[in-house]
Structures are given as C-alpha cells and as structure tokens.
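Q: I'm a student working through a structural biology exercise. My instructor gave each of us a protein and asked us to get a predicted structure, then write a short paragraph describing it. Mine is Assembly factor cbp4. I'm not confident about reading structure output yet, so if you can add a plain explanation after the tokens, that would really help. Here is the sequence I was given:
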Amino acid sequence: MNRVVKSIVYGVGIVGFGYMTMKLTTPSPERVVNSLPPDLRASYEMNKKDRSQAEGVLRMIEDAKRNPKNLV
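A: Happy to help. First, here is the predicted structure for Assembly factor cbp4. I'll explain a few features afterward.
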C-alpha cells in the first residue's frame, strides 16, 4: 500500500510541475498579438474581421435551418 501512495504522490507532483511550467511559460494570445510587427498585426486584425463576418453568415444559415418559417 505504501508504494501505491508514493507512486500517486510522485505522479501528481510530476504532472503538477508540468502544468505549472506550461502555465508560466506559455504567452497569452493577446501578448502574442502585441508582440507582432505592425504589418503582421494589421494582417491579423483584417483576417479576424473577415472571420467574424463569415461567422455571422454561418450563424444566419444555421438560424435559417432551425426556423425555415422566418425566411420570408
């Protein structure tokens, strides 16, 4: 029984250390965008705007599929 508990504690410690390391070293999406050069940031913002418009169209299509009576 002692070996099982010891193994669980070590396993949790290793996984916890890995998770903490990941959280501390991975930058947030905003930080990545802010670190981009101005031309790439402008391109990113333009693509983001295009994606939001496309998502709006897809949302309208999904709504039309759910409620076909509201099309007229």
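A: Here are two points you could use in your paragraph. Helices lie at 2-25, 29-34, 38-66. The chain has a mean pLDDT of 88. It's a good idea to check both against the output above yourself.
Q: Great, thank you!
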